[in-house]
From TrEMBL:
GO BP term, pick one: proton motive force-driven plasma membrane ATP synthesis
TM helices/strands, residue ranges: 40-58, 96-114, 145-164, 188-207, 227-246, 258-280
Protein name: ATP synthase subunit a
Entry-linked Pfam families: ATP-synt_A (PF00119)
Gene it is expressed from: atpB
Source organism of this protein record: Comamonas thiooxydans
Gene3D superfamilies listed in its UniProt record: ATP synthase, F0 complex, subunit A
Top-level taxon of the source organism: Bacteria
Recorded family membership: Belongs to the ATPase A chain family.
GO cellular component, one term: proton-transporting ATP synthase complex
Main location: membrane
GO molecular function annotation: proton-transporting ATP synthase activity, rotational mechanism
Its biological purpose: Key component of the proton channel; it plays a direct role in the translocation of protons across the membrane.
Subcellular location: Cell membrane; Membrane
Length: 287
């Protein structure tokens, strides 16, 4: 069976699926005027879905024997609360940070879980709705670096806020120029150490923020690519009789990777939540 003359090549297929629905065509690798509408809309819808699920659990909560849904949510809430207590020793701060950690875990889990949908399902429906075969749509917000770095930057802002709130502006400023190498009674050495300490603090904040976002992005981006490669196995079978065994491999590989990926999407949500708690806990501690 001959291949369709208009069928995309493997590289064209992957490049198409890696394009965002954007306001303008991106002119460079870093272009702050570009808005990825698909990431914003999908993340917003999933955020509302997460709020609805937790609200539903709270509304149906009973002091009697809980149902399966309530029990599952209670286990999740208790797990997050225990982690918050282990990292945030300020009870007043936990009133905000513990619900924040729960929100982070649920929201990122839902965004990661979009990777479990068939690769071509939503893009195909979007193309049909827009009557444009070249319409772009990416449905995994956490495979978008702007999403993950946006989340990690929000954590950085909270860390700075709690550093000032707990230690005071003067205490935090003093920490910036005295940690991690301390200071000296000699004015010259004190100045040199102050500059070095400040540079180390800035590097630490930047490194934590970038690695926090890049870790989640890298894992979800790689998972998305694997699903695309597996999808190509099924497409190759449609173009050649010699590929009749590829659909079998497509199903087997897809099933194995999907089962494994359930662990990945859960673990990545948990890791991001834990790092959020750890960084906020460090903001409460004096060096």
């Amino acid at each position: 069976m001959a291949a369709d003359a208009h069928a995309p090549t493997a590289s064209e297929y992957i490049v198409h699926h890696l394009q965002h629905l954007q306001n303008i065509k991106q002119k460079s690798v870093i272009d702050f005027s570009v808005i990825n509408y698909d990431s914003i809309v999908v993340a917003g819808v999933l955020g509302l879905l997460g709020i609805f699920v937790l609200w539903l659990a709270a509304r149906k909560a009973t002091s009697g024997v809980p149902g399966r849904f309530q029990a599952a949510v209670e286990i999740l809430v208790e797990m997050v609360d225990n982690q918050a207590k282990a990292n945030i020793h300020n009870a007043q701060s936990r009133k905000f940070i513990a619900p924040l950690a729960l929100t982070v875990f649920v929201w990122i889990f839902l965004m990661n879980a979009m990777d479990m949908l068939p690769v071509d399902l939503l893009p195909y429906l979007w193309q049909g709705a827009t009557a444009d075969e070249h319409a772009y749509l990416r449905v995994v917000p956490t495979a978008d670096l702007s999403t993950t770095l946006g989340l990690s930057f929000a954590v950085l802002v909270l860390c700075l806020f709690y550093s000032v709130k707990i230690k005071g502006m003067g205490g935090w400023a003093h920490e910036l120029v005295t940690a991690p190498f301390g200071t000296s009674k000699n004015p010259v050495f004190a100045l040199i150490l102050g500059v070095v300490n400040l540079l180390m603090q800035v590097i630490e904040y930047v490194a934590k923020t970038v690695s926090h976002g890049m870790r989640l992005f890298g894992n979800m981006y790689a998972g998305e690519l694997v699903f695309m490669l597996i999808a190509l196995m099924g497409g190759a079978a449609a173009m050649s009789l010699s590929g009749v065994l590829l659909p079998v491999g497509h199903i087997i590989a897809g099933s194995i990777w999907a089962i494994f990926h359930i662990l990945v999407i859960t673990l990545q949500a948990f890791i991001f939540m834990m790092l959020t708690l750890i960084y906020l806990g460090q903001a409460h501690e004096a060096h």
